[in-house]
Automatic annotation (TrEMBL):
<feature type="signal peptide">
    <location>
        <begin position="1"/>
        <end position="21"/>
    </location>
</feature>
<feature type="domain" description="L,D-TPase catalytic">
    <location>
        <begin position="176"/>
        <end position="287"/>
    </location>
</feature>
<keyword id="KW-0573">Peptidoglycan synthesis</keyword>
<comment type="pathway">
    <text>Cell wall biogenesis; peptidoglycan biosynthesis.</text>
</comment>
<dbReference type="InterPro" id="IPR036366">
    <property type="entry name" value="PGBDSf"/>
</dbReference>
<dbReference type="InterPro" id="IPR050979">
    <property type="entry name" value="LD-transpeptidase"/>
</dbReference>
<feature type="active site" description="Proton donor/acceptor">
    <location>
        <position position="247"/>
    </location>
</feature>
<protein>
    <submittedName>
        <fullName>Murein L,D-transpeptidase</fullName>
    </submittedName>
</protein>
<keyword id="KW-0732">Signal</keyword>
<keyword id="KW-0961">Cell wall biogenesis/degradation</keyword>
<keyword id="KW-0808">Transferase</keyword>
<feature type="region of interest" description="Disordered">
    <location>
        <begin position="31"/>
        <end position="104"/>
    </location>
</feature>
<dbReference type="Pfam" id="PF03734">
    <property type="entry name" value="YkuD"/>
</dbReference>
<keyword id="KW-0133">Cell shape</keyword>
<dbReference type="InterPro" id="IPR036365">
    <property type="entry name" value="PGBD-like_sf"/>
</dbReference>
<dbReference type="Pfam" id="PF01471">
    <property type="entry name" value="PG_binding_1"/>
</dbReference>
<dbReference type="InterPro" id="IPR005490">
    <property type="entry name" value="LD_TPept_cat_dom"/>
</dbReference>
Length: 292
């Protein structure tokens, strides 16, 4: 009997201990008690356009709704911009070992020679070690994947757009001007009629979210802006009209099957450079058109 009573008391003590441990894990603020909980990444950033201005890029947010927390992101699988040739295919004549020759070899050589700055190329339609090195540098500069030195369709498209961009269409304007060619999907920067940032690639509005041509002014800037409807951070945000602005791309820029919701998407290095140059009041000129 004494052993039974002792066992009963030990069992009662154990139950009290377990209930107490469970109670300690309850957070009275977790059900709206006001305060507590982790602060979302970038919460110090104040909305300046992407989540506060109505327009084609995003609707106006409800003023009583809290700013949503960003969701964990997982890397998107990017499309194979430059498909590799079959491993069983014979190497094209003139191709150096480890550097395949693409179907647009001569055209890419021509455009890279015109652009300059990527190394010596010989315009003869035959891959060489020097040609390969120049093409690789070009592909790395404009984030063309994969940078194997092969003159494939994406490399050809980007080189052609850059080499045929007419910077004079932006006009001879005083001060700093950000220029965007919607037709060629290129952008550059001028100061007092002189190019200070050479044409680079961009991506503007897809079908249903057309980026308008015209002259605008940067009126709001934020190092990192939260987009309410799309739940994504927009790095190096510079707003210029109707919820549209410059920002670093959040997807693979050369995916031709998609576009932006009206914004002017930039590669990381270009977004940083534009941010360094831009100010509230900076001029933005968009010419041409893109149907989507």
């Amino acid at each position: 009997m004494i052993q039974f009573r002792l066992a009963s008391r030990l069992l009662a003590v154990a139950m009290v201990t377990l209930v107490g441990a469970g109670a300690c894990t309850f957070d009275p603020q977790a059900e709206g008690g006001g305060g507590g909980g982790p602060v979302p990444v970038g919460a110090a950033e104040q909305p300046s356009g992407a989540s506060g201005t109505p327009g084609p890029d995003r609707p106006a947010p409800a003023t009583t709704s809290p700013k949503p927390k960003p969701k964990p992101t997982t890397p998107r699988s990017s499309p194979a911009a430059e498909p590799e040739p079959s491993r069983t295919s014979p190497r094209p004549s003139g191709s150096p070992a480890g550097c395949p020759q693409g179907e647009h070899q001569r055209q890419v050589e021509t455009y890279l020679a015109r652009l300059g700055g990527f190394g010596a190329v010989t315009v003869d339609g035959r891959q060489s070690a020097a040609d390969c090195a120049a093409i690789k540098r070009f592909q790395r500069r404009y984030d063309i994947r994969s940078a194997t030195g092969r003159a494939g369709p994406t490399t050809y498209d980007v080189a052609k757009r850059l080499a045929t961009t007419d910077t004079d269409v932006c006009g001879d304007r005083p001060g700093l001007t950000f220029c965007v060619d919607l037709t060629r999907q290129t952008t550059w920067v001028m100061r007092d009629g002189r190019v200070i940032v050479k044409p680079t690639v961009t991506r503007t509005g897809m079908a249903g979210f057309r980026t308008p041509a015209g002259t605008f002014t940067i009126d709001r800037r934020n190092l990192k802006e939260w987009s309410n409807p799309y739940e994504v951070w927009l790095p190096y945000w510079q707003h210029f009209t109707r919820g549209m602005g410059f920002h670093e791309t959040t997807t693979y820029l050369h995916d031709g099957s998609i576009g932006s919701h009206g914004c002017v998407n930039l590669l990381h290095s270009d977004a940083v450079r534009y941010w360094e140059l831009g100010r509230v009041g900076s001029r933005v000129v968009l010419v041409g058109s893109r149907s989507g």
